[in-house]
């Protein structure tokens, strides 16, 4: 990421914004201290897609609704076995 002084931003605003529009990220400095970042707007990607692309999130492994947990106290359901089965599905 390139740093540019605020003076350059003031004097060449159109040129700086054109660079950002073409995909560059620029850091604006005042007396050598970073104060702002100019980043391109990517309206075509969702927040999740952008985070996955940046490596900050993992895409979902499965689609569809999450199964409801077993009803507590139902004698016909072995809750521990159901939990083990769900965890086994996640691993593979």
UniProtKB/TrEMBL annotation:
UniProt GO MF annotations: toxin sequestering activity
Domain of life assignment: Bacteria
Region: Disordered, residue numbers: 55-74
InterPro entries in the record: Antitoxin_Phd/YefM, phD-YefM_TA_antitoxins, YefM-like_sf
Matches recorded under Pfam families: PhdYeFM_antitox
Family named by the database record: Belongs to the phD/YefM antitoxin family.
Function: Antitoxin component of a type II toxin-antitoxin (TA) system.
PANTHER family cross-referenced by the UniProt entry: ANTITOXIN VAPB46 (PTHR35377:SF5), ANTITOXIN VAPB49-RELATED-RELATED (PTHR35377)
Name this protein carries in UniProt: Antitoxin
